[in-house]
Amino acid sequence: MAGDDELERLRYENEKLQKINRVLMRRVEMGWGNHSDAYQSFEDAAMLADKVKERTYRLQQTLHRLEESNQQLELARRETEKSQIQAEQDRQRLRDAIESISDAFALFDADRKMVMVNSRCAEFWQQHNITYELGKTSFQEITAASLVLVDHKAKAQKKVGVYPDPIAQTIFKLRDGTWIQMQERKTNDNCLVVVYTDITNIKLAEEVRYETAMAEQAELLKATLENMSQGVVLINAQRQIETWNQRFFELLSLADDGVKRGDVFAELMQQNVFSKALFDAISFDVAPDKDFLEVEMMLDENLVLLVRRNLIPGGGILITFADITERSRNQIALRESEQRIRLITDAMPALISYVNKDLCYEFVNREFEKWFNRSRDEIINHHLSDVLGQKEYQTLTIHIARAMLGQAVNFELEHSRDPDNVRISNKTYIPHFDEHRNVIGFFALEQDVTEQRRTENRLRMAATVFENTTGAIVVTDPAGYIVQVNENFSRISGYLPEQVIDQLPAMLVGQQHDSAFYAEILRALRSEGRWEGELWQQRSNGEGFPTWAGISAVHDSDGDLVSYVCFFVDISERKATEARIESLAYYDVLTGLANRTLFQDRLQAALQLAVRRDEWVAVLFLD
């Protein structure tokens, strides 16, 4: 060994130095020759001795270190031998472990050269005439040689694991029907472990379970189909019947005698007029590019079918037939109801709308469209702020919030579409609840009450005038019955309101006028709508008194008579004053006899009458 050779060399060097040292010592003792100075020779000898001594010391240290190294090398050699024995034992245990497993095992080094296989792997390859050589055959070569054994008609299954378990797993089927699972896993030193497992029994068991499950699913599907209210038929890519339920035959009035799997669907649908019409509507030539087709057909007045055709992967077709007769009737009734509601709301002189929970319009009537000068399409599904304008929307926000909280809201608002046309609207919001009492929108009713408010103001002013005028006012209905009187009526006539309400005005007039007088009043009211003149009336105590009265007929906007209004004032004092003035003008104050003025007035009247009658007038003058 290298350590032993070095040690031998150092020993030889040490002996050589010792010999040189002895020779030098003898020369010193002999005086270093005849030609040198004795002292110089001694000094040289001493220096040489020191160098030899130093060199000898170093050689001894080196020798000591070499001996220690030799001992360590010996220990290492023993440990190596021990490790080799242990490694051999471990390799044997690995071989035993590999041989003990039931799977075929192969180990490939970092260069993917085969370095180890177990007997099952060797037997498998020998059985299929696949040759290999340890240390030379690569993983790619053995894989390529194995491909001829694979049944490529069966779909291979591959699964690659991820960290921390990066196992690649491939399942494939051999030509002899054997199923193999190949697992590949890299080792820490980049070697590759491949395990081949025969999983034929597992795959056969899976196939049995799959077939059993499919049979159970088929039975479940059949039971499900038979319990469905819809008719169902499944057609394959060859347009043959695969499966169906009894409801299919019942809805289409088809005979199911002799119908079997594989029958041509088109031939089955030729049994009656209804089925022919349906087949023409859902024929495979109708919209062939559509995966889904829906047709609603009324076979007769008592049967409406909803037919759906669905294309399924592989070219098959699933057709369902649903009896929607009742739903169709309800839809017709709903449409008719909606039309009636539309007619009613469109005829109403109010703005009617429905707003959903997103504050978008879902319904508006014609008056709403007119007011905003927009078509229905420009309003439906648009937000309130888009239709009303941001300013008006902000004004309504508080009322909308209350409606969306479930409160019924009523309020009035002034607004205008132009500055010269300010209108007053009465708005009502009614919340709409679902079955869980959640608000899902609200109904809005908006009425233009501008004229109503103006009329109310006029009525209030009229009522003020009615109660505060100095004359008496009597209001009757078209039939002439008194319906209202003011306070001055009671003061002038002495009658309380409850004494004359629902009575005819005849109880108020005196006996001074004949029937011709009252007939003239009625004629004037019918022809001219009003009459005015002097009218004698009677107080509650029976006293007659003169009045100046005016009667007017009141008509509505359509020209129909709604009431009569009579206004009169007591002219008793005025009549008495006129009588006194007349007495002073036509009679002597002392004698009470008629004076010259009265004579001339009467003479003038007589002359005018004589002219009209073509008569004579005689005058006698006495002095």
Structure in words:
With 623 residues, the protein is of the alpha+beta class. Helices cover 45% and strands 24% of the residues. It has helices at 2-29, 38-100, 119-127, 139-146, 200-227, 246-251, 265-268, 273-282, 325-347, 366-372, 384-388, 390-404, 450-468, 487-493, 497-500, 515-528, 572-586, 596-613, and strands at residues 104-108, 114-117, 157-160, 168-173, 179-186, 192-198, 231-235, 241-244, 292-300, 303-311, 317-323, 351-356, 361-364, 409-416, 422-433, 439-448, 472-476, 482-485, 530-538, 544-555, 561-570. The strands form four sheets. It has a six-stranded antiparallel beta sheet. The protein has a five-stranded antiparallel beta sheet with strand order 8-7-11-10-9, with helices on both faces. It has a five-stranded antiparallel beta sheet with strand order 13-12-16-15-14, sandwiched between helices. Helix 1 runs antiparallel to helix 2 (38-100). The radius of gyration is 66 Å and the shape is elongated. The protein starts with a helix and ends in a 10-residue tail after the last helix. The mean pLDDT is 80.
Characteristic terms for this protein:
18 helices; alpha+beta; elongated; 623 residues; 45% helix; six-stranded antiparallel β-sheet; five-stranded antiparallel β-sheet
